[in-house]
Write a structure and sequence with these properties.
163 residues, mainly alpha, 42% helix, 2 strands, single chain
Length: 163
């Protein structure tokens, strides 16, 4: 009934990955979940359908030895992540600081933020707050092909003019 911290590894026999997932999800979230399977589908199923502090496939305890991996639990097995930079980040409060320029130009450029709002100010605020997709860079392929072709053409023209 309690979380095990020691040299005991309980092994439970189940008939299927689905039965194992059902058993795992019926209990408090484990600190670590060890899954022994070469099947990518089974591995993916455990990753997507369970919650635990860490997941190891075809190994045990190795996540504790790697400082590059965070170690920690979720829910009753603990919160946060420890080891290396992850431990530092867990116990660090990053304080955001904003300093505003109160010069006349900064104040003039930012005055649209204050009421009363006219149509122009509302349009500006909506434009700033609009969630935009990252612009497509597909056209760069065509530009690259064009530049390579032009460069190759110039080299060939130079070679044929010389000879």
């Amino acid at each position: 009934q309690e979380e095990i911290f020691g040299p005991i590894l309980p092994i439970l026999n189940v008939e299927s990955p689905e039965e194992a997932i059902k058993l795992i999800n019926s209990r408090p979230k484990p600190l670590a979940l060890y899954v022994f399977s070469e099947s990518k589908d089974v591995q993916s199923k455990f990753l997507n359908e369970t919650s635990s502090g860490g997941v190891l496939f075809n190994d045990t305890l190795m996540h504790l030895t790697l400082e590059q991996l965070p170690f920690g639990g979720v829910g009753a097995s603990g919160m946060g992540a420890y080891h290396g930079k992850y431990g530092f980040d867990t116990f660090t409060h990053y304080k955001p600081v904003l300093k505003r320029n109160l010069g006349w130009l900064g104040e003039k450029l930012g005055e649209f933020r204050y009421p009363p709002y006219d149509e122009k100010a509302i349009k500006t605020i909506k434009t700033i707050l609009k969630n935009r997709a990252f612009p497509s860079l597909g056209w760069l392929v065509y530009l690259l092909v064009l530049l390579v072709g032009a460069g190759l053409g110039a080299v060939l023209a130079f070679v044929f003019i010389e000879y």
